[in-house]
Fold this sequence. Notes:
Mean pLDDT of chain B: 90
Oligomer: heterodimer
Number of helices of chain A: 8
Mean pLDDT of chain A: 86
Number of domains of chain A: 3
Number of strands of chain A: 11
Shape of chain B: globular
Order of helices and strands of chain B: EHHHEEHH
Helix content of chain B: 55-70%
Low-confidence stretches of chain A: none
Order of helices and strands of chain A: HEEHHHEHHEEEEHEEEEH
Radius of gyration of chain A: 25 Å
Strand content of chain A: 15-25%
Number of strands of chain B: 3
Distance between the termini of chain A: 46 Å
Helix content of chain A: 40-55%
Number of helices of chain B: 5
Strand content of chain B: 5-15%
Distance between the termini of chain B: 28 Å
Amino acid sequence: MTDSTEFRTARRRYLLVAGVAPLLVAVVAVALMVSWLPEVPSTVATHWSGDGTPDGFAPAWTVPLGAALLSLGLAALFAVIMLTGTRDGRWGPNLRLLAAFSIGTTVLLDVCLTWSLGMQRGLDDPAEAPGMLLPVLAGTALGLLAGVAGWFAQPAVTVSGDRPAPTVEALRLAPGERAVWARTTTMARGAKIAIVASFTALALGALVVAALGSPVWWAMLATAALLALLACATFVFRVRIDEHGLVARSPLGFPRFQVPLDEVQGVAVTMVSPTAEFGGWGIRVGADGALGIILRAGEALEVSRTRGRRFVVTIDDAATAAALLEALSERARERRH
Amino acid sequence: MLIRVDPASETPIFAQVAASVRADAAAGRLRSGDRLPSARDVAASLGVNLHTVLRAYQLLRDEGLVDMRRGRGAVATDAVEPLAQLHHDIEALVARARALALSPDALAALVKEMYR
C-alpha cells in the first residue's frame, strides 16, 4: 500500500471511530431518554453531592438535549482537530489515540446521562434519586471498553511524509575556536489564541458557577489561573547551543530542558507536524517517545541522545543550530578518545 | 544568532563578536527588531569577560546596527537591512557561480582577491 492510500484509510477509520460511532451512541441514548420523559418527574436530579444525594435539579427535557449537544459538539471537535491537523498528509499513533478517546468519552458521558434519567423513572420526588456511583462505574468501564475497541478498529499507520534522511554538515571550527548559537522560538499565534480562549472559557465558567452560588467556583478559577500560568510559561523558549550543550528555557526560568554535549549522539533538521507527530502544541511527548517543545509546524532541530529520549524543538535557522551542535559534539567526542 | 570567537586570532575578541553579529545580519539570521542574546549569556557561553561582549555591543551601537534599551537589552535596528539584502546578492552570486560550475573555494578566493 502506498502512503497516500494508507493515509486515506486511516483518516476514514478515524472519522468512523471519532465521529460516526459516537453519533450513533448519542442517537440511541437520546431516543431512550426521550421515550422515558413521560415516566420521569418533570424536574429531575442532574447533580449529586459528594455523599451521593442529589443537590442539583433541572427540567427533565434538558438531559436528552444536553446529551445531544455534548455528543454532537465532541464529535465535531475531534473531526475538526484531525481534519485541520493532517492537511500535510502525515499520520501518527497520536491520532489513533485521539479517535479512541473520542468514542470512549462519548460512551462514558451518554451512559451516565441515560442511566441517571432512567433510574428516576416512576419517582415522585427527584430528591429520592439513588446515587450515581454505579452509573459512573459502569460508564467508565463501558467507555474504556469502547476506547480500546476504537483503538483496534483503526489501522496502525505512520505516514511521516517525504522526509529525506538528513545529514548535517558540521560547522567548520578552528581548534580553539568558541561559538554560541542562540535564538528565541515563539508559539504560533493560532495555538496561542486557542489556549488563551480555553482558559477564558474556564474562567467565565467559574464566574457562572459563582453566580449560581456553588462554592466550587474559587477552585475552578484557581485551576484556570494555574493552567494559564503554566501555558504562558511555554509560549516562548530561548534556545542556546554552546560548549555545554543545548539548553532551552522559558523566559521565566522554568521549564528548562538541556542536553549536555556528552549526550549528543546525532543531530538533524526536521519538519514537524504538531498534530500527527506530537498530538498538539506545547511540551509534548511524541508517538515514538521523543520529547518535544512544539510551538509551531515546520522547521525543527532534532537531537538524538546516548541515553534518554530524543529531543525536538521547533525553531528557525535550525540548520545553523544543527551544524554548530554537530561540530561541538564531534569535538567533545574526539577529546574523550 | 551565531557568534564565534577564536582566541588564537590576531583580531581582538570584541571585534570578533561584533563581526559575528554583522555576519549574522548578512546571512539573514538577524533582522530588524530581533533581540540579541544578553551579553551575560554570550559571555558565559563563550567563556569570555562580560565587558568584552558589552564592548562589542557598544561598538555595534555606535555603528547604528543595534539599539541598547534598558530592560530590553540590545535590539537590531533598521540599519541591519542593507546587510540582510547583501544576503540576497550572495545567494544570486552563488547561484550563478554554481551554474557556471565554479567551485565554492574558487569563488571565495575571487571574492577575497577583490577585497584587497
